[in-house]
TrEMBL record:
Source domain of life: Bacteria
Protein name: Glyoxalase-like domain-containing protein
Alphabetized InterPro entries for the sequence: Glyas_Bleomycin-R_OHBP_Dase, Glyoxalase-like_dom
Span of domain Glyoxalase-like: 3-177
Any single Pfam family the record assigns to this protein: Glyoxalase_3
Length: 258
């Protein structure tokens, strides 16, 4: 398993969401406009990223985004070969959608270039928490730009996503098969680990992505910013831990030191 990114759905409220994350001290990439009718900003770390996704106020609007709830609503794994990933998933007994190309223009040093992605989406019937898919970056040099990798708040990485499930043991084994990894019990929860990233499933009557855990160099800056940003709440935790709450997005981001 290799995490590619985690998605936060802003629906039609991208301007407000982007302003909040900028006030929180994240470096946001310039707004992207996808060929399928969605818009985005990325918050990059060296190996993965957090993505704000939404739809424009007018013009083509991506139905998949509109049909999804606000907040955490996408877990995306890395693929080196989308058609091969699609074939592997079918062989493993999944029913993935056909691979699809996604594009968006990127301004690099005054030149417009096309960032291209080859995605394989899983079906909601198999993963009721939200959107799950694989992403092959065909132009990674247009995504991981050095000028977008430094964050004033010290954001350093993604550590975990917590998922609510009606049947965490069964669903953990499904995620483990998807990610070519193993599921293991941890108290009442089930975990799928790979390197520094963990998928945690816990029992809950309402399936969904519950929270994501972000890593920071330290929490002094992000706690100060979160405490003073309109529309945001900061929950102080034990030493080296805290949480950002954004009620307008029904969003909880756990924070801890790297």
């Amino acid at each position: 398993m290799s995490l590619d990114h985690i998605v936060i759905n802003t629906l039609r409220n991208m301007d407000d969401a982007a302003a909040i994350f900028e006030d929180l001290g994240f470096c946001l990439t310039p707004r992207g406009h996808h060929s399928l009718g969605s818009i985005n900003h990325l918050m990059l770390e060296p190996s993965a990223y957090l993505e704000l996704v939404g739809v424009p106020q007018s013009g083509r609007q991506r139905q998949e985004v509109l049909d999804s709830p606000p907040g955490l609503n996408g877990l995306v794994f890395r693929s080196d070969d989308a058609p091969a990933t699609h074939a592997r998933l079918i062989a493993a007994g999944f029913d993935p959608q056909e691979p699809i190309i996604l594009e968006r223009p990127v301004e690099i040093e005054g030149e417009t270039r096309q960032a291209r992605f080859h995605n394989v989406r899983m079906r909601m019937e198999e993963f009721p928490a939200g959107r799950v898919y694989f992403c092959q970056h065909l132009t990674p040099d247009l995504v991981w730009r050095v000028e977008w990798l430094t964050h004033p708040n010290g954001f350093a990485g993604l550590a975990e996503i917590a998922i609510h499930s009606l049947d965490p043991e069964r669903e953990a084994r499904t995620y483990a098969m998807l990610a070519e990894s193993a599921a293991e019990p941890s108290g009442n929860d089930w975990l799928i680990r790979d390197g520094g990233f963990t998928i945690r499933l816990s029992q809950h009557e309402t399936p969904g992505f519950a929270s994501a855990t972000l890593l920071f160099d330290d929490l002094s800056d992000i706690s100060r910013r979160a405490s003073s940003t309109n529309g945001v709440e900061w929950q102080e935790g034990r030493t080296g831990k805290g949480a950002i709450l954004v009620p307008s997005l029904d969003l909880r981001l756990q924070c801890r030191t790297a």
